[in-house]
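dude i think i finally got it to work??
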Amino acid sequence: MKESGKEKGSPPPTVVWQKDGIPTRGRESITKHKNHSQFLIHSTKRFDTGLYRIVLSNDYGEASYDIHVRVADIKEDGSAHYVILKRDTSTATWFTAAEKVYSNKYTVTGLLPGRKYFFRVIARNDIGDSDPLDSRDSWHINKDKELFHARIKEYHERDWRHAPHFITPLKNHAVRRGHDCTMSCAFLGNPRPVVTLYKGNVNITANSKFWYNSTSGVCTLVIPACTTKDSGDYSILIENELGQEKCSCTLTVYDKDDKSLLDSVTDSLQKSKHIIDSTDQWKVARVILTVSSHYPLSQILRMKDHDQCPDTYQKDSPKSGMRIHIQQIMTDVLKAWM
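look at this
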């Protein structure tokens, strides 16, 4: 509580402050100047309520002035609190950092290191919000330097080199004269193997008659418009500094009812351990040729479901006691050529 007054008088009057007619003592602070007097009480209480009087007096008289003071109780607002907002310097949008703060100190969490923030404080109660109070300068959140320790294993270079080898070798082919024949195989090797093509013992890699391509470990050889001269053994040699490997196949070029086809079939049957003499050879030939007259040879060679082959063509071999069934003959032909 603070009260002040101005006075005049000659000689200068004596100033006395009273409360309820009694001179005040103790809690007040009285300041006197030439024409001015001030009465101050810090942190007023309810018992400071009363009638305060300032009395001026000198040899010629006396004057006074009364002041009525009432100290009222202050009812605390339990709903009053602070709302703290934050804003990154890179955006204009405010976000709530804390919604109900009842103290004048608060630590904001969830701030990203290395960024700058502005803060805003709003007082709020049941009646409404106060005017916002913004921070003048931005606050920079320091980024802690993290020590990272890594255990790096010693690097041992692996030798990925290996000798070439075939993963899909060449297969035998039977092609009718005038048709194209395509042979292919797949291989692996590191360093990349060098591919060489042979017909018999003759290198045909650079021969313009044949179409040859080797890409991504797949080698393809195309023989266009095959003739009987193209029949024979074909082989592919792959080699690098670590080794080499070779695979071969047989190409048979035939005409309809061609005896060379019969020879090839007979040879395949003999290699598969079927016992066939010169007499039986012509009987087998008759069987194959009879079948060929009813079924195109290309269809017979592609009969992978052998139950579709005719089962009326069969014979007994008196020498071996073996029964040679047309299905078994076709199975051996398929194994030799497909």
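Residues 272-287, 289-326 have pLDDT under 50 and may be disordered.
im so relieved honestly
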